[in-house]
């Protein structure tokens, strides 16, 4: 019997090639997209979850409360890890880790190259499951002159991991480090990214500020005993800093708390000191999109199956007359749906394999179809079974319920309940499609806004070049800058401690006359060289730092946000003008405000522009050159910079970054979401239209004789097309009405993550509605015109 059912199902597929192809294509597209999304979600959830000690690993976080604000993050004092390990027996291991990336020049013999790494505590390899190919966890980072390198670095400089152990590497042409360990290259599902690690004590020696309890910046990671009570430790950590940081209690508070280490990647956002999402939001979003696409594909199958129901009705009637029970008929039709799904699954796997390289390129992942993993096939088969049962359930129940007497007498008519159900499916499909269309438009507009908005300075034709090697000496630095300014295509040169797209260091140590001593105010700070204003092209009231003023080493530039916070005013000038020349003190060093810059964005547009104070630093070490080039002459200017670099700094490879590229990196996630939303919205509409095509075909079949009668009585083709189309357009309009408030709510929540955002305007919903109606009308018109052009003689000859 089962074999006969299979033969019948296969014959139906072959006999109705067009409908079968549409069914399989719709299901395959839905499953292929859902499979790609599932693989992406699986990869996101796997980040940092490969460590054997994962349940015992935690990030130590800090919550700071001052000036009416609460901020939270991974920033901690550099001396915190060792002290925590001493004070709390629950903590087995503790290690510091520099959150900032260090690019250093490695030299081994004639091989010179830049490598990326960090500093980490001696317990690092005891905590994390990073296999060591040479060396031991106890000695890998125990020496200030030791270095742990990756397999890639070891093979690049020494040929293999074993040969690298004990060898010397000269870093930045300044210090020699001995290779104490070689670790396996970090897996793709690691949020950390480094090819070498240096000892933590070495980091403290290089950065004396990290030894102060009042200074924050590095990360602290700990590993607890398996039996440790995390809630109790979290409570004990909360007041821990008060006995070490003398500033706490003076209108300022700092509290430590724990975050599970694997959660750090997905739950990185904090609002008012509390965890407030992060990349987990995108995981949830795409999970919903995957379900939407599968539902749309299943509904499409239901509508297409229903459209062919009249042709299967007599088969059902005959089977029932000769004794077939309903359960067998249900099994037969669900079996047919499963056969369709299996065929679609094969096509979906082919599509996924074909699209995976492009998908990886778009998302920045290295996902593969894990065909050797049993879990992959279990999930795939489960998805196919679920899809087949969901898609085939309604057609199976509907067709098996037909009464054989009515079917065989030729009086088959479908009741209002069945009609409303099918119409409801179409409405549901287009609600989902409308949500994706509106979401796509809003995401595109917001991403385009943040990528093209005026930041307050010109980021185009601006290049960053690290100050390193010989250029760290004042004399060579001045020579390099002076020579650059003589090169064609170069307009201005300055230097800055941090890139202007990501200034993150802040302080509470700024005071001025009249400041409320009971209020501790956080102000972002950075150090720069001369000619900053000219190089960035920022508008300023007052002046820039200048070598003509010897006292500028104790003077300051501020932005308008700082000016508003200070609040100086006089009767003759505006706020900015009144501040120029006024006294201000930073870190106990008194000076004057020499200029007030117009507010410019120095962080992501997710964050409001914060108060900023800029000091002059004539010591060029640990800064970046900012080089402004003539528009259209960047290539020639870069060639000149590289030539000069090789002359003055030959032992360091030349490297540079474009300010515009660095800014775009801040919105990589949003850009990826925007592109994926475009593709998924298109596919949702495409699959939905396949369902609409099926329903319009079904309706045309149901009304064949009515159309014949109308034509005999003189109805025009246009009139018949309008008659058949209007009912479907009503469904699309209902879907637009339902979807619009849902889309507004969802996208308004998404936009709350941006401090600077575009408004959700009414025309977005109008445009999405016009697109949906237009696409639906084109889809419906095909069947409507076909039915309207049919010869009425053929329609009525059976009467």
From TrEMBL:
Transmembrane annotation, as ranges: 21-41, 285-307, 328-356, 376-399, 420-444, 679-700, 728-747, 762-782
Pfam families in UniProt: FtsX, MacB_PCD
Keyword terms of this UniProt record: Cell membrane, Membrane, Transmembrane, Transmembrane helix
Record keyword Cell membrane present: yes
One Gene Ontology cellular component: plasma membrane
Predominant cellular place of this UniProt entry's protein: membrane
Domain ABC3 transporter permease C-terminal: 288-404, 680-792
Subcellular location: Cell membrane
InterPro entries with a match to the protein in the record: ABC3_permease_C, MacB_PCD, Macrolide_Exporter_MacB
Keyword RNA-binding: no
Membrane topology: Multi-pass membrane protein
Domain MacB-like periplasmic core: residue ranges: 20-238, 455-639
GO molecular function: transmembrane transporter activity
Domain of life assignment: Bacteria
Stored PANTHER family: ABC-TYPE MACROLIDE FAMILY EXPORT SYSTEM PERMEASE COMPONENT 2, MEMBRANE COMPONENT OF TRANSPORTER-RELATED
Name the record gives this protein: FtsX-like permease family protein
Biological source species: Spirosoma aureum
């Amino acid at each position: 019997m089962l074999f006969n059912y299979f033969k019948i199902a296969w014959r139906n597929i072959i006999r109705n090639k067009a409908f079968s192809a549409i069914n399989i294509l719709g299901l395959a597209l839905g499953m292929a997209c859902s499979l790609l999304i599932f693989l992406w979600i699986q990869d996101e959830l796997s980040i940092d979850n490969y460590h054997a000690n994962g349940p015992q690993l935690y990030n130590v976080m800090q919550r700071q409360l001052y000036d009416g604000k609460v901020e939270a993050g991974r920033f901690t004092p550099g001396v915190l890890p060792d002290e925590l390990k001493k004070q709390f027996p629950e903590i087995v291991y503790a290690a510091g880790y520099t959150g900032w990336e260090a690019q250093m020049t490695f030299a081994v013999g004639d091989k010179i190259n830049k490598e990326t790494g960090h500093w980490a505590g001696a317990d690092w390899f005891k905590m994390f499951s990073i296999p060591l190919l040479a060396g031991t966890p106890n000695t890998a980072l125990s020496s200030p002159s030791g270095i742990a390198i990756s397999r890639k670095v070891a093979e690049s400089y020494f040929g293999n991991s074993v040969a690298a152990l004990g060898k010397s590497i000269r870093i930045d042409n300044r210090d020699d480090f001995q290779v104490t360990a070689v670790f396996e290259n970090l897996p793709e599902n690691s949020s950390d990214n480094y090819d070498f690690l240096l000892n933590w004590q070495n980091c403290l020696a290089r950065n004396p500020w990290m030894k102060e309890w009042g200074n924050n910046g590095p990360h602290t990671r700990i590993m607890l005993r398996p039996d440790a009570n995390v809630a109790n430790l979290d409570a004990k950590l909360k007041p821990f800093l008060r006995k070490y940081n003398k500033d706490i209690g003076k209108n300022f508070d700092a509290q430590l708390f724990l975050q599970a280490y694997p959660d750090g990647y997905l739950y990185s956002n904090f609002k008012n000191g509390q965890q407030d999402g992060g990349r987990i939001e995108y995981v949830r979003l795409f999970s919903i999109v995957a379900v939407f696409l599968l539902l749309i594909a299943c509904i499409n199958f239901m509508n297409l199956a229903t459209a062919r129901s009249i042709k299967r009705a007599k088969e059902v009637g005959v089977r029932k007359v000769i004794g077939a029970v309903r359960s067998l008929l249900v099994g037969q039709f669900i079996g047919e749906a499963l056969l369709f799904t299996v065929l679609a699954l094969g096509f979906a796997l082919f599509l996924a394999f074909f699209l995976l390289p492009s998908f990886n390129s778009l998302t920045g992942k290295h996902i593969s179809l894990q065909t050797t993993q049993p879990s992959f096939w279990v999930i795939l088969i489960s998805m196919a079974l679920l899809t087949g049962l969901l898609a085939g359930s309604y057609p199976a129940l509907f067709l098996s319920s037909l009464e054989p007497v009515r079917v065989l007498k030729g009086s088959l008519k479908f009741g209002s309940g069945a009609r409303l159900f099918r119409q409801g499916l179409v409405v549901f499909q287009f609600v989902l499609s409308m949500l994706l269309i509106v979401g796509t438009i809003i995401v595109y507009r917001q991403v385009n806004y943040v990528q093209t908005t005026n930041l307050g300075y010109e980021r185009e034709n601006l290049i960053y070049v690290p100050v390193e090697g010989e250029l760290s000496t004042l004399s060579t630095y001045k020579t390099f800058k002076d020579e650059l300014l003589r090169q064609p295509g170069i307009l201005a040169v300055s230097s800055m401690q941090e890139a202007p797209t990501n200034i993150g260091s802040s302080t509470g140590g700024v005071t001025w006359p009249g400041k409320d001593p009971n209020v501790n105010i956080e102000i972002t700070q950075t150090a720069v060289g001369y000619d900053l204003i000219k190089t960035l092209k920022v508008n300023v009231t007052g002046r820039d730092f200048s070598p003509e003023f010897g006292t500028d080493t104790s003077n300051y530039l501020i932005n308008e946000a700082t000016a508003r916070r200070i609040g100086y005013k006089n009767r003759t000038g505006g706020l900015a003008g009144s501040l120029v020349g006024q006294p201000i003190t930073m870190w106990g060093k008194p000076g004057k405000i020499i200029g007030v810059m117009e507010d410019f964005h120095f962080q992501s547009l997710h964050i409001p522009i914060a108060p900023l104070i800029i000091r002059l630093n004539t010591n060029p070490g640990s800064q970046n050159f900012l080089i402004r080039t003539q528009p259209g002459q960047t290539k020639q200017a870069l060639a000149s910079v590289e030539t000069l670099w090789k002359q003055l700094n030959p032992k360091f490879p030349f490297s540079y970054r474009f300010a515009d590229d660095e800014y775009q990196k801040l919105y990589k996630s949003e850009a990826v979401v925007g592109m994926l939303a475009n593709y998924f919205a298109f596919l949702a509409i495409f699959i939905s239209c396949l369902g609409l095509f099926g329903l319009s075909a079904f309706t045309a079949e149901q009304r064949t004789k009515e159309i014949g009668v109308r034509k005999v009585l003189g109805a025009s083709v246009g009139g018949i097309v309008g008659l058949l189309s209007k009912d479907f357009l009503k469904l699309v309009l209902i879907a637009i009405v339902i979807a619009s408030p849902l889309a507004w709510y969802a996208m308004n929540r998404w936009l709350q993550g941006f401090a600077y955002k575009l408004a959700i305007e009414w025309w977005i919903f109008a445009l999405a509605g016009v697109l949906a109606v237009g696409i639906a009308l084109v889809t419906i018109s095909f069947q409507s015109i076909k039915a309207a052009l049919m010869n009425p003689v053929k329609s009525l000859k059976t009467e």
